Structure formats: C-alpha cells, structure tokens
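Anyone able to model this chain together with nicotinamide-adenine-dinucleotide?
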Amino acid sequence: MKMIVAGGDGFCGWPTALHLSNLGHEVSIIDSKIRRKWDQEIHSNSLTPIASLEERVNKWYQLTGKKINIYIGDLNHYDFLREVLKQTEPDAFVHFAEQRSAPYSMIDREHAVFTQVNNVVGTLNVLYGMKEIVPDCHLIKLGTMGEYGTPNIDIEEGYIHIKHKGREDVLPFPKQPGSMYHLSKVHDSHNIMFACKAWGLRATDLNQGVVYGLHTDETQMDPVLINRLDYDAVFGTALNRFIIQAAIGHDLTVYGKGGQTRGFLNIRDTVRCIEIAAENPADRGEFRVFNQFTEEFSVFDLAEKVKKVAEEEGLQVNIAHIENPRVELEEHYYHAKNTKLKDLGLEPTLLTDNVIREILHAVMKYKDRVIRKNVMPDITWN
Ligand code: NAD
Ligand code: USQ
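re: yes, here you go
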C-alpha cells in the first residue's frame, strides 16, 4: 500500500513509519518538525538524543534498502498538502500530526487557540484534500481516549445504544474532554464523521490511551533510529515520567490522590494497531471508532509498580502526592471497551515487571540528559 504518515517525526509516528516500511508498504512522512521547536520554546529536550529526520530515513535506507520519502511542511498549508497528495496518491493516510500535550494547550489563550487551529484546521485540510484528490483513501486518525472523559458508566467504542422515551438509536458516545487539547480531538471527530457521511470518505478514529515505552523492533536496529522520549511536565506522560523520575532519584509525581484511571498501551502495540487498521480499512462512508489501549491503571497503581521494580534494581524511590495542576476527578469509575482491535488480531503487550525493567534500563543510559527543573508541573488548569 502507499501510505502517508503525517507526524512521522514524532514519538508515535516515527516508529510507525519504520514498522509500515518494514512490512513492505511505500511510506511517505509529512512533518513540519514543529515538535522540535516546542522543545526549544519550553527549554526542554527528548531524554534520548534524536537524529534529524533526514539522518533517520538515510540510516533506515542504508540498513534495509527501503526508502521513506519525506515532505517537510504543515498540514495547515493546503497547497502543500494537495501537492503531496497528488504526488503520492496514498491508499491510507495515517494522521498523527497534531499538538498533543494537554498542559501545553492550557498555558494561556494563545496556546489554546494555536492547539485548536493547528489540530482542527490541519484535519479539515486532510478531509478536503482527500475529497478533492484521493476520495478512496482510508483516513486513520489518532484520536484519544480522553475524548470520553470519565463518565460513571462503561465507555463504549465510539457509539452507544440509547433508548429514550420509547424510541432507540445508536449515537456517538457522549464526550467530556478534560483540556483544550482533548477538546480539539472531539472537534476533529465531529468533522471527520460529517465528512464520511456527506462525501462518502472512509475513516477510522483510533481513540488511543496513554502510550508508554520507547523502543520498537525497528527503532532498536541502530542508535540513529532511536525514538524520542518525553519526560518533562508538558509533554511527558504518566508511566514514562514515573520510570524516568525513578531513574534520576526524583519523587514520583502522582497528581493529587492518584485514583485517576486511564487506558494505557505500549508503543510496540501502537505500531501494530496502525498496521491492523490499515489492513482492514473502513468502508466508503463509514466513520469507525476503535478504542486503542490494552490495559487500565490508576496513576497511583502505576507509581507503585514502578517503585517496586526500581527498588528491585537497587534504586530508592519515593511516591509523592503533589497538588494536582489539573481539574479532573481523582477518584472515579472507569471501565472502557477495547475489543475491536483485539478481534482484528491485536495481541496486547502487557505491563509486566519485566517490561517496566526493560524501559528503566533503556532510560538509565540517558538519565544525565534530564533537565531536572522541567520535571515538576507549573502549568495549571485554572
Ligand atoms: P509528537 O508530538 O511526538 O508527534 C507529533 C508530530 O506531528 C511531531 O513530529 C510534529 O512536528 C508533527 N506536527 C504537529 N502539528 C503538525 C502540523 N500542523 N503539520 C505537520 N506536522 C505537524 O506526538 P505523539 O506522542 O507522537 O502523538 C501523535 C498523535 O497520537 C497525536 O495526534 C496524539 O494526540 C495522539 N496520541 C498520543 C498519545 C501519547 O501518549 N503520546 C496518546 C494518545 C493519542
Ligand atoms: N499524571 C500524574 N502525574 C504525572 C503526569 C500525569 O498523576 O506526572 C496524571 C494526570 O493528572 C492524568 C493522567 O496522569 O490524570 C494522565 O496524564 P498524562 O499526562 O499521562 O496524559 P494526558 O494528559 O491525558 O495526555 C496523554 C497524551 C495525549 C493523549 C492522552 C491519551 O499526551 O496526546 O491524547 O495521553 S488519554 O489520557 O487517554 O486521553
């Protein structure tokens, strides 16, 4: 298949581009490289030293003989996007290219507006580009489990069967997102659903949980292919942050009570989920939603798991309940369905002690790169 991976220089996109290329697909990356500029803006860095995108794809070619094309540009620039679609004529468009940090979107009005314009307009351009140039292309869009929030009922995969005043229907599951970033994903979902209905496009919205880990089989092939790994309070996410905090002797930063429960998955499963979605495309006119996570954990449970493994490795670890910078429930019901990807063949990588140990060992190599002042959160929701 001919595939575009938009956001292919990022944490999920880079390993996905390699994985799809390794499977024999013809991969083209679109990325504006803006993620690297956000590191400069917030004076932070990837824990791992990452090569330039050009060096990365050259090394991949040297190692495998497989060519990944790169198109440097912004999805918000429609003329650029049209040109790429015309040149590549993709069968699938994998869309990771958004501003994905909740704290970044909550810095101030400018960052909220930027996040929503970047994400919503970028996705709208992809929809119009597909309609105009490649109407049969399958859009595989990264959404988030955070679109649903934490309702006091089970979370279904995209749609819920409702009986109301003697009538019934299958309707989109209610959305209660928890940040300006998560809201942008809800807006995207609505726009994609409408485009599928109105223009007969085909789309899969992957409501992904929090991704942890770092390596995949492909990124491990050479140090130049290493993935980025975020640890700071703006872009770092719960489990990866805790492992890195344990490595540098920092208290594990559980926000508030720590009963916040979310869906999680290993980056190795992210790349496999994209493969599965691509090989089983949605029908024309279908807006399909998969919940892309493998296990549910509360943040306090995760901190305890990390503490146990790190102590077995001879590290001293303290769990701190710090004041929660976010507005969110710290104790709540959480149970979400995630059967659709498993029905299509996903075999989950579970979070065993050994998986945590492997990530910890990988992280220890680079722990001196951590800028400690970036670990504690300073962006608040209110
Ligand atoms: P990332 O920030 O590491 O990568 C995103 C990439 O997209 C970056 O390389 C950036 O330069 C690029 N980009 C952003 N806006 C762009 C634009 N307008 N035009 C072109 N390129 C642009 O993020 P990630 O962690 O790889 O996340 C990828 C996607 O997966 C996001 O949509 C995110 O919402 C979703 N997701 C991530 C996680 C997670 O835990 N990392 C969990 C659920 C969903
Ligand atoms: N948390 C802590 N301590 C930390 C960091 C986070 O207790 O040091 C808590 C947060 O308060 C929150 C939970 O952990 O309750 C998850 O936070 P996170 O920063 O790990 O993840 P989140 O902000 O939700 O965002 C990440 C990605 C985003 C993706 C989302 C999936 O950055 O792109 O959409 O995970 S989900 O959480 O399912 O919405």
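The first strand starts at residue 2 and ends at 6.
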